[in-house]
Amino acid sequence: MKVLLYFEGRNWLTKSGLSRAHDNQKRALEMANIEVTTDIRQKDYDILLINTYGTGTQKLITRARKANKKVVIFVHSTEEDFRETFTGSNLAAPLYKKYLIKLYAQADLLIAPTQHAKEILHGYGLRVPITILSNGVNLPQYQPNSLKEEAFRQIFSIKRNEKVIISVGFYFDRKGVHDFIEIAKQMPQYRFIWIGKQANIYTPKHIKKMVKNSPSNVEFPGYIKGDILEGAFSGADCFFFPSYEETEGIVVLEALASRQKILVRDIPAYHKWLTDEKNCLKGKNNADFQKKIEYLVNHPCKEMKEAAYQVARERSIPAISESFAAVFKNLLRG
């Protein structure tokens, strides 16, 4: 079996979770002894695995179908999680949905990372078979490491007794960056650090203004990777992710793998795999979040952190590797 793993616009998307999902897929496929190529000039592959949505993707799918190759699309995007992102995204969302439906309908198989994502796709009226398979997480990369944590604390000049709450993601309304800032205003005794690619021409003006005028206990250092980011995941006092919509939430997987205390919004994406007061805490509004942050930063929550790690283990690269192998073998037999 040979898989052509395609990622359009890698240079543009290298700072996104989608890029890390692509890398996880490559590792998982290779771990399952499945030959992988990323060279679109090759023609001797059996399955085309798609992660992106541009014109290059459409051309490659058309070529693959003419050659009777199997086409699999890993679903990272829906209309629902396109909304409340870039300037004009809400206006463009209905057209984007039509484009996605047309694209997804050309697959032999769709992979959805959660039951929630699968239900959204069913709601689009798609008749393509859909299987559920996590984006996966590289467990060794996010193991707590005292040197990485110390590097994080030094970079941000974090004092010994300071409590630090982090989040990771783009500056989107959908990600809840406005709630992050508002809660920080109400909790000046703590430091709030939002790690993610800085605002650009596509960022809504109100978000830029909000970030610029954020209180002194909120920091937006921009995109960070490697040891500093990994040290932040495990070295902070709480990972707070107030996103309103996700297909899975790759940064949540990374926080789980870091044995971190996690607070997320109670949204359908997390149903059935994140359990409130077992492996995380969930909140419904800012008042709720504020109370739960106060609890998390002042309690060790050892059992919760270990339960969080077990969720990450179930979605580790070796775990999804076995699933990829089984799914792809069945597809070729079909």
UniProtKB/TrEMBL annotation:
Record carries keyword RNA-binding: no
Chain ranges of the Glycosyl transferase family domain: 150-310
InterPro entries in UniProt: Glyco_trans_1, Glyco_trans_4-like_N, Glycosyltransferase_grp1
Domain of life: Bacteria
A GO MF term: glycosyltransferase activity
One Pfam assignment: Glycos_transf_1
Domain Glycosyltransferase subfamily 4-like N-terminal stretches: 39-139
Keywords from the UniProt entry: Transferase
Cited Gene3D superfamilies: Glycogen Phosphorylase B
Protein name: 1,2-diacylglycerol-3-alpha-glucose alpha-1,2-glucosyltransferase
